[in-house]
What does this fold into?
Amino acid sequence: MLDHVRVAGPVGEIEVRQGDRIRLKPRAGGDVFDLALAGRVAIVEAIEQDYEGQAHLAVVVDDDPGRDLGMLRQPGHRFFFAPEEVEPLSGES
It folds into this structure.
């Protein structure tokens, strides 16, 4: 598991860590979950790395009624996005 990843922000790259708030900006042509989650605010629960060395942000959506299950890493309440599919929300709590 990685401790941070750099993502494009409004003024250059910004470091994103576990616990940071982000806005989801899924790539075009994604699946139904991408459509449903686009624009939603989420918390980075973890930053995972796959076998090819690519980073993925495991996120829990703020307004998910099962958010506590996502924080416990339960299926259906934790979603994965590439760093280029998120927008950091620096300064928001």
